[in-house]
Amino acid sequence: MTERTKFLLDESKMPGAWYNINADMPVAPAPVLHPGTLEPVTPDFLAVLFPMSLILQEISTERYIEIPEPVRDVYKLWRPTPFVRARRLELALDTPAHIYFKYEGASPVGSHKPNTAVPQAFFNKQEGTKALTTETGAGQWGSALAMACNFFGMDLEVYMVKESFYQKPYRRIMIESYGATIYPSPSTNTQYGRSLLAGNPDAPGSLGIAISEAVEAAATSGGAKKYSLGSVLNHVLLHQTVIGQEALLQFEMADEYPDVIIGCAGGGSNFAGFTFPFIHKNLTEDKATRVIAAEPAASPSLTKGVYTFDYGDTAQMAPIVKMHTLGHTFIPPGIHAGGLRYHGMSPQVSALVDGGYVEARAVKQLDTFRAALTFLRAEGIIPAPESTHAIKVAIDEALAARESGEKRVIAFNLSGHGHFDMVAYEDYLHGRLEDYEYPAEAVEEALQHLPSVG
After folding, report:
1. Residue 243 forms part of a structural domain
2. What residue numbers bound the domain in which 252 lies?
3. Nearest-angstrom CA–CA distance, 373 and 402
4. Over the stretch 296-327, which tens digit does the pLDDT of each residue have?
5. From 155, 212, 231, 268, which residue has the greatest number of CB atoms within 10 Å?
6. Weakest-pLDDT range from 48-62, 203-217, 257-271, 354-368
7. What CATH number does residue 315 fall under?
8. How far apart are the C-alpha atoms of 185 and 197, rounded to whole Å?
9. 159 domain residue, yes or no
10. Which is nearest to 12 in space by CA: 251, 275, 254, 249?
11. Residues in contact with 425: Cβ distance below 8 Å, sequence separation at least 6, in sequence order
């Protein structure tokens, strides 16, 4: 091995197609159900929210779906992204492990989210959509879609979880700078938001509530607006697989292959984007890479949730999917990893965890920031609070390799930078952050409200 640190691909090596894990899923996907009838949804129902091209991607079983040239042209603003051997972190940990990370913070908005925001805006524009609505937690998704809608000349209405709206003002300003309109959720802009505020004017909000507001705004627009989301559903995860496909090529450049790959997990998008191409190798080429989803102990859908059918939003307007869920009434604590505070997990990721193809690990907030400081003081990059969960697990794996004295190749997705999350770091450095583990009794109560699906 040389002492090479960065493995950079030329633009010509950027993937020409997205990888669709539906082609290789070892278990058949459960049907998506109508929130009212509890029967399988029809294209007509989904067409109220999504353009037909995205609906077809959602249900497709083709292994590869071509990336349109206009989307590739925008991708070239930041793709392919860097792949880095974290040599200084290895030295700091005194580990024989080789640690790599894929750096998605290189995008204009600082996260992986534009990988799906750009194609969603493109396909909507292609089918005549004039405006989109969406939710956002910490603001990464909202800023990515705001940028994409600006590129394709579309209006955007964003409902940002109120807790994050005030925690992260600079992401809100970024969204407004791209020309989008943004509301703290719950808001007075929708009937559902007004009903929640009437009962609790200080409601902190949740991703489930913000989704409800964005869905209502689209569904009641008379066709003027469509809904766009940044995680969970298959077409979103599909678009993110450019990450893992690039990483496979970059591992070839490094003349190595991973023993362990890790991604933080909230709804599943960055995790799937990085890991699904490697899972494809596990399923079709007898590779044996361990795959770990790192989630917050405060929002532990994979490690404490139940694998069952649940609504995708709090108001029960979005489709019902089978997933690991904490219950759609879940209201998360105000941890700084706002992008991981969703009540459920992608159906594909959930099925892979349930089948034993993916491990799930919950980590505490203070441990993630401790790991973040170890990483940033070695490698220089300030990670987003969401990404620190993957860093924590990667460090744990590297320390386990040190204890056993074995070489282990570890890779994680650094899904975004933390330049707009410095209040979180300030709170940690000054002792104002607390750990919070979501109590089992709260999960039990929330699960009493699940839909009655036979």
Report:
1. yes
2. 6-14+68-110+235-449
3. 20
4. 998 999 999 999 999 988 888 888 999 999 99
5. 268
6. 203-217
7. 3.40.50.1100
8. 10
9. no
10. 249
11. 369, 372, 382, 418
pLDDT for residue 438 is more than 60: yes
Q: Could you tell me if residue 202 is inside a domain?
A: no
Residue 325 near residue 308, CB atoms below 8 Å: yes
pLDDT tens digits, one per residue of 42-73:
888 899 999 999 999 999 999 999 999 999 99
CA distance 211 to 217: 10
pLDDT of residue 336: 67
How many domains is the chain built from?
A: 1
Q: What's the pLDDT at 198? A: 95
* pTM for this entry: 0.94
Q: Is residue 301 part of a domain?
A: yes
> Residue 1: its pLDDT value, please?
45
